[in-house]
Specification:
Number of strands: 11
Strand order of the largest sheet: 1-2-3-4-7-8-9-11
Oligomer: single chain
CATH superfamily: Luciferase-like domain
Strand content: 15-25%
Number of helices: 12
Distance between the termini: 6 Å
CATH topology: TIM Barrel
CATH architecture: Alpha-Beta Barrel
Length: about 325
Amino acid sequence: MARIGYHVSHEQFTPRELLEWVCKAEDAGFACAMSSDHIAPWSKRQGQSGFALSWLGAAMQATNLSFGLITVPAGWRYHPTITAQAGATLAHMFPDRFRWMALGSGQALNEHVTGERWPSKAERNARVQSAAEIIRALWAGQTVSRDGPIRVDEARLYTLPEQAPQLIGAALTPSTAAWAGSWADGLITINQSRDKLQAIIDAFRAGGGDGKPLILQTHLSFAAAEDEATHNAFYQWRSNAFASSITETLKSPEDFDAASTHVRPEDLDSYVRISSDIERHLHWIAEDIAMGFDEIQLHNVGRNQLAFIDAFGARIRSGTFA
């Protein structure tokens, strides 16, 4: 049975709001949650970006949910030794509940703040794989030194969990998925067309990921009326409605807002599942499960979080997602 989770969007809401809502998601029946990890939102309309690692400690103390985190450990905003220490501490404090960290190659939006050169996708991927090796070695209790591509000098962690989190590869394309299959413990991707999703899954499995868990982060817009669902998606998510090859180089929310000037409401359909009909959303999720996803993290992109939690929680409690 696939696990249905609640996505915690730090870019859209304050940490206090998100703490309230993740508690309500647990009460509603959601099995797990995942957290984003940004220093800036994608749009001034979103307007927030709390520190995810601080928030996770509070959220895990306040709930009994298991959590995942999508982050960039490749040596800009976080050095992998810091990512490893943070993950080890959370996993030590909350055994079996900090289940995974998804490692991505990042966006300039978050990583340029250190003033370092923003490299090519190939170089960033090499740094992510190196970071995964460093993190695993540290979690195994080793003393780690590396010359590159990320320098490490005799790093060691002194507080370790009994069970380390899984390191999940984040991929939006088949080529990245195939590469992730060679080193990651599992895969996370986002909703796309069925053909594109299947190509990503097939590439991950062919690249070495056969039998490893698959996680889907689903961007959706649910509301009481169709025009409200469309408005919510357009207002909050149009700055995300273009290719990753563009978004990964933009440096500020203002850049994203400028790039999305010509996005139309109908353009959002390729990026967000928009419907006021919960049965349609359930159909989409059933198709996700049939494709083999083990965990589906639902992200309602609108600001109507409580209505979303209540409506979908009722279906979770009724066993609809079984």
